[in-house]
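The methods section describes the discrete structure representation at length, but only in general terms. What matters is that the chain and its backbone geometry are given together, residue for residue. Nothing conveys this as quickly as seeing an actual entry. For illustration, here is how one protein appears when written out as sequence plus structure tokens:
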Amino acid sequence: MPFQSQSFAVFFKDFHLEWRSRFGVSTVLAFIISTMLIVLFSLRADLLSVAVQSGLVWIIILFASLTTLSRVFVSESERGTMDLLRLNAPATSVLVGKLVYNFLFTLLIASITLFLFVIMVNMSVQRPALLAAVVLLGSSGLAGATTMLGALVSQAVRKGAVFPVLALPMLIPLMLLLVRVTQAAFTGGEISQYANDLAALVGFTGVTISASILLFDNLWED
């Protein structure tokens, strides 16, 4: 079977399982809505500075993502289908299929969260193209990091406790970059103010995905 077909088969399997159970989507939507209501009414997010609002929205996206993204590999381990997947698809196809699934799922989370946050807080987006680029790069970076970490966590005994401990230190630099560029998208800052941060986001995403592809073969064969 060609590489593209194998990767699509892995992606479609995860998508079909999620569509059938809707566990991840329902969990994430409940988390996003409840967290936003708490932020809006308890912290009065509409009165906070744009910098704080940008930080809050990415914190919500981060923790919403962490609740489900590790399950692309953990669920294989829990169902006992990891060995079957190893026999039917090479490591690179498995990684690409699950990476694409995580990216699309994270992109959905980020888009819904930002859309609801902008409406509820009544924010104005000065640079929509920049905000769209931030969402794409942020989703790619989160998906790249959490997919590889999810594969590592699936080998651990206490899977639920290990994933956040490993993920948060790794994702802090990404979060700082995303907050700064998102703030520029809301305030309409000059290109020179966020060009380096955008380049750093591209670099983080590229390095994370490249490292995952290079290291995953060894992890998958163990």
The chain has one domain: 3-221. The radius of gyration is 18 Å.
